[in-house]
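Long-time lurker. I teach an intro course on protein structure, and each term I like to show students one example going from raw sequence to a predicted 3D structure in token notation. This year I'd like something fresh instead of my usual example. Would anyone be willing to generate the tokens for the chain below so I can use it in lecture? Attribution to the forum is fine with me.
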Amino acid sequence: MTDRSGWARAGALANGMFVNGRTKIALVAAIGLAVLISVPLWANNYWLRVLTEVAMLAILASSWNIIAGICGYFSFGNVVFFGLGAYTTAVLMSGLGTPFLLTVVLGGAVAVVFAVLIGVPLLRLKGHYFAIATLAINLATREVVTNLDWTGGGKGIWLQIPDFEPRTFSLLIFYAMVLLLAVTVGTVWLILRSRWGYAMRAIRGNEEAAAVLGIYATYYKVLGFAVSAAFAGIAGSVYAYWLTYIEPTQAFDMNLNIHFVMAGLLGGLGTVLGPLLGAIVLQLLSESIWSHFLEVHFAVLGVLIILVVLFLPGGLMSLLQGYFPQKREQSM
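-- Reply from a regular --
Happy to contribute to a lecture. Here you go:
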């Protein structure tokens, strides 16, 4: 009888801890939603731009997390998908008058097709060979776009200025980025709880052992690469429409690639919320450092990231894991 009551108390305690964890998550989500809804009331144009950039950086970091954090293949050229999405929107809207929403879908589709075409051969490489190859693909694609007439060459492409008030247009772009971020984070959450996610983590742990277990590694790697590309391509499409101008060095900017890689590492790879947290902290740090240390901006950021990698290899999320009781190791 005593044993049964002991088990009952333990079960009640465990259930209470889980409910409390869900309550904390619900509270955080409610606060976040309230902040998003109130943005038009308190955010001036400067902070609206910063928040939009945070959301975009978080999208890119979360999408990169799929192939790098979950699958274990560190791509240093994922910005190529962002650039392809941006140019798809720019070319279609400026040359053919295609509606923006359709170009967003096509921008993601172009990025996916390109990811599959290059992923099949590239994902047979491993380690630094794969990383260097993806970097080379981005540089090569940028040069091709620079030398094509229908992409505007080195001059870039101007899009038609949207028929909105500037403030209204900025808010629309902000909420579009937030919506895309929510879908991206939700997709990562679903992947981590699917057979696909288990297979990718097995590949990350030991690809040869995964193959022995019957996991077709090439299929899962290419699939992860394609999903990662889709979100980056859509973000690029929205970005091109936001700026109403795009050119090669801007669309295929390696500095942007470095930023979302840093955000992923800072927040914690292989987690759901790590890239989001890393993007928020990194962008706010970047804005602060840029205003005080303009000439050594990247050097200061680099030192900060090195310190995090050395002393907090699990990223900032490793500090928060205990705050949210989880049923599964990867729930956050």
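Some talking points for your students: The chain has two domains: 66-252, 257-332. The longest strand covers residues 157-158.
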